[in-house]
Amino acid sequence: MGILDGKVAIVTGSARGIGRATAELFTSQGAKVLINDLDTDVAQQTAAEIDGETIVYGGDLTKPGVCDELVAKVIDAWGRIDILVNNAGYTIDAPIHKMTDDAFQRMLDIHSIVPFRMCRAVAPHMREPAKVEREQGVEVFRKIVNISSISGTMGNAGQANYATGKSGVVGLTKTLAKEWGQFKINVNAARLTADKDGDNTMEIDGQTVQLGIPSQMRQLAPALIPMGRPGTPAEAAGGVFLLCTPWADYITGQVLTISGGQFGGMTS
User: Fold this and answer.
1) Domains, the chain
2) Mean pLDDT of 38-51
3) What is the DSSP letter of 232?
4) Catalytic (active site) residue 162
5) Which residue in the list 57, 90, 162, 250 is annotated as catalytic?
6) How far apart are CA 262 and CA 98, in angstroms?
């Protein structure tokens, strides 16, 4: 018996790294999970390797209508949505005086606009059932977890675009927690210090982008993180999973820091 038996989850950017680890943990606990990646082939391979019930949606979530199509596929397959994890993302780093408009806009699109569109797309499938349950006097909790970053709450040199996008999702999280609390929808954020995919890169619209923490930042981990290293994808997924369990039913509008103690005690 799993903690998430019968639940249906969407995890964006779940073919690799933290997203994949989250999807694996969810399925191991009984959830049905949609696997998403820009590269459909990679998403299908991941789904085939995960031991659990999955479906696949490959596509660029920043394009108009794609988030709605993804949600429609889940509803067609399983008829409900209980959990949404907005995880998809990447970085394009540069000092601000050398940063292009395109590089800045891309980070806003994937880290702020896409989570907004995904939350809007799942809204009727989370809010409407909750209205019926409220009339029946029944509490059923649904979960949204938005993945932020230490960069989004503390800033980071060379990442003005990424930090702006990730800080924006924190504001979205806190606002939705206030709007949707009446529907028993827990909306939280997890800010991470995790080595997602090492030096792995991928092509997005003809541009090579970084998917994990750059090697020079990983080398600084012993000095910056009390635990002495970046977190693993599985450790990051554990925090996300915690926010999706019944033990987090009274936690909403919060930012859970999964950082091995990095910046502990500092104002965020």
Assistant:
1) 8-197+231-258 (3.40.50.720)
2) 97
3) P
4) yes
5) 162
6) 28
